[in-house]
Structure formats: C-alpha cells, structure tokens
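Lab notebook, page 48
Experiment: co-folding of the full assembly
Goal: obtain a model of how the components sit together before planning crosslinking
Operator: M.T.
Materials (sequences as entered):
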Amino acid sequence: MASTETKTATDAGSVEAGLDALETAVAGRTPFRQTFTSKILPPLVATAVVLVVWQALISFKIVDDPTKLPSPADVGNEFKSAWLEGKLLGYIWTSVSRGLLGFAFALAIGTPLGLLVARVKFVRAAIGPVLSGLQSLPSVAWVPPAVIWLGLNNSMMYAVILLGAVPSIANGLVSGIDQVPPLFLRAGRTMGATGLKGAWHIVLPAALPGYLAGLKQGWAFSWRSLMAAEIIASSPDLGIGLGALLENGRNASSMAMVFEAIFLILFVGIAIDLLIFSPLERWVLRSRGLLVKS
Amino acid sequence: MATALAKADDVEVVEYAARIEHVSKSFAGPAGQQLVLDDITLDVAPGEFVTLLGASGCGKSTLLNLVAGLDQPSAGSIATHGRPALMFQEHALFPWLTAGKNIELALKLGGVPKNERRGRAEELLELVRLKGSYGKRVHELSGGMRQRVALARALAQDSRLLLMDEPFAALDAITRDLLHDELTRIWAETGLSVLFVTHNVREAVRLAQRVVLLSSRPGRVAREWRVDIPQPRRIEDAPVAELSLEITDVLRGEIRRHGQH
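Observation: model returned without errors.
Model output:
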C-alpha cells in the first residue's frame, strides 16, 4: 500500500494528461470581421431600411400631411435645434436621473422583499401571489392615485417607478432562488455552508442569473412607468423630461417634436439595457458556461 | 506533498473512522412507512477502503447520506470523527467559481486562514494532477477533470473519512479506469478512510480492501469479502475478475429473490 508510486501509476499520469488535452476544447476569440457581420451590421441595415421607407412615404407623397407624418429631415432639425439650444441633454438627464434613482430605490426594496418571499413560507403564502399578480398590472394605473396621494412632484414619480419595478425585481430573485439545484445545497451542507453561510456562499450566487433577469425586467418596467407618469403628470415645477417633451409636442401640434421624444425614449431604454444590463447578464452566463456561442 | 496532506503525526489513535450500529431508516411512502435500511452494522477502520455494493433499492445512497449527516437514522447510531467529506455522482462544483476557488471555498468553510488557502488549493490540484487549472471555469473542464477537482475539493475539507456516492458512474470507461488509478494512489498517499458506494462489481473489487454487499428492499448487509489482491490492481487482472464473478453470482441470487414473490 505504501509504494503505489510504481510504473502503472506514473503511466496513469501521462495518459491522463493526454486525455485532458484531448477533451479540453480550444476556444479562440471571434475575429472582429465576424462580430461586425453577425452582430453590428444587421441592426444598421434594419435602421437604414426604416429610414428609406419613411423618406419614400414623404417623397412619393403617399402620406402628404406633416401634422401626421413629419419628414426625417424635420425630425432631424428638431434634434438639431434642441441640441443647439443646449436642451437635449437636459431632457435626457431629467428622465434618466429620475429613472436610475427610482430604480436604485426599487433595488433596495425589491431585493430584501424577494429574499423574504423566497425563504419564509408564511410570507410567500401571504404575498407571493399578489407580487406576481402585480407584474401584470400596467403601472400607468398607479399614476392617478400617486398624484392624489403625493401631489405633482418627484416623490410621485418615484412612487410610480417603485410600484412598477419592485415586483419584477422581487419575483426575479424568488424564481432564481427556487431554481437553485438541490445538489448545490447538499454539496454546500457537507462543506459546512448552512444557514447564513449557506445563503451567502451558495444560494445567492446560484440565484444570480434569475436575479439579473429580474433586474433587467425591473429596469424596463421602471422606464415605462416613469414615461407614463411624465406624460400624464406634467407640471412646470417638474422640469422637462422626455415624457413631458412628448406631451409638449402634442400640445403644440408639433409632430416632429413628438417623434423626437419617442425616439429619445426608445433610445435611452435600449442604451441602458445595452450598456448596463446586457453586458452584466452575458458576463454572468458566459462565466458559468450557460451562454453558447452561436 | 504526501506528508503535507497526510499529517501522519497528529492522527489520534482511534479504532474506527465510521461506526454504524444497528442503523435502520424508513421513509413515508405511498404504502405507509417503507423500510429502506434494516439493522445495518458496519465499521470502517482508519485508513480502510470499503466499497458498498448493491442493486437498485438497497439504500446505499441513503446510508451514505446518513453517514454524511445530511439525514437522521430512524433507529441506531452513527459515529464519525468530525464531518465526513462527500463526493457525488455529479461533480457538484459551483459554476460561478473557478476550479481553484471551488477548493478554496471548502478550505474557507473549514476555517483555513485566508493567506494559506491559495497555496493549499494549488497543492490539492497538483495532487489530482491538475496543476495549472486553478483559474479554469468548471464548464471548461472535461468530465474526468471535473470529478478530479471535486475530489480535490472533498480532500480540502481535511476530513479523515471520504464518502463517495458512485462518483465515476457517469464517466466513460477510459476516464473511469484512470480515475481508479488516481483514487488508489491518493488514498495510499493520504491515508484516508474511504466508504465508496457503487453498483459496479468490478469497480468495487478493483478499489477496495473490503467489499460489503447489501441486499435490496430493505437494505441489509448480505455478505462481506476481504480483497487481498495487492495494489496497484487493474480492472482486467485475473484475480479481480475471479472475485468479481463470485460476488456477481451472490448479487444475482439476492436480486432473484425479488422476482419470486
């Protein structure tokens, strides 16, 4: 028993090294050309097609009414003048700062709430169904009561964001925790990760992908709720955000301004997702081998 | 390396690594209480390698869970020194950590100080011949490599008893053969006690000093064999094949009884 370091054993080592090499896939970086043609080019083409069709509708006088459909150039001018007056970034910042701050509040409330619902049976039975039901309630429904309770101010905006985003974030965490493989919990317990240690070292990291999906949806809901609130509750004291810009365009019968606002709302929503949530989600999934390169 | 892991000096003189005495376990099933384990008595001596062999329904995994402390016996008692390490059929490595960090987590939970963890993890990876895999993600490793990291993580718990629940059942034959060699080598180097569950008779004979056959429904100790074939053995060796044949005949007899009611 003492001298097993014999010929067979050392042989096993070299055979094993060979087998490891055979079974380990060699992963390389995708060249930029390929990334460009498969990821960047298609959305650019889609955008170009939309612009061409839009311009064609105007040029061939298929829609000949600038109060219904402004030309791309009109909308471009609207952007340009807002930029030259130095207001464009102000519009964006007013809404984005509100949205992100509201989202941060939603995060601070939704996370512990999700933990409670996932881990405490009584809480789950009591508010679990309500929490998932709330996700299907359009958050614009909260605007009238929020205005009545809090008045036309920023707190009312934040209240609407919270009511829109907290259920998504909490539900994401709950489903993330529910989907933690029992094997991980058993493995953790044999290593002594029980109670709080188990929650910190095993449950939370294992639930991260579900939690991130919840955050992503939570942001989408925050942004939608905020736009609804800004459109409905516009007031000079609130400053002009993107929703208020849209409402102002409607009041001024300026379709170009309405288009400008819609594009900005869309652009900001996509940009935040592309810059913050998608990279985060991809990083988490890729590091766990859950993202298959296509 | 061997000395660092074996710590031969501070092993207390004990007569057993695990002592299982008159253990029974029943679960609530559709037909009332179902007896899974019936009056099992079994000792694993320090440094001994024991395989538990049995067909489906013999409760071998249940018994391992009881020894691991993941479940409580309905009757009888189980004694071990500290918490045994447990290895599963699935590698059960955490995909959010690298191979090295998986091992370090076990060290951390075992109370190893922060500045020693990295070195210990590297040492353990070298022991399972995975030097240089510290920063690899779990999904970048092959099935055999994952099980070796899982073995290293189990060893990181610094327990004197290693429980293994069919750890090589999901591997291909070539890899399994090599891991048998590795496990035998590591067992000899570290002086661990191993309780290894399997339904593969040849694997049981290839590895163990003692093979314990469990009967099924309920699980009872049916018979025991000492395996005196010197290590290193190979699964193709004539004495291994011969004893496997003998055990297989008894195992088939046990299984046959269930078709007769």
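Interpretation: Chain A touches chain B at residues 1-2, 4-6, 8-9, 12-13, 15-17, 19-20, 23-25, 27, 183-184, 186-187, 189-193, 197, 201-202, 205-206, 208, 284, 287-290 (CB under 8 Å).
Next step: discuss with group before ordering constructs.
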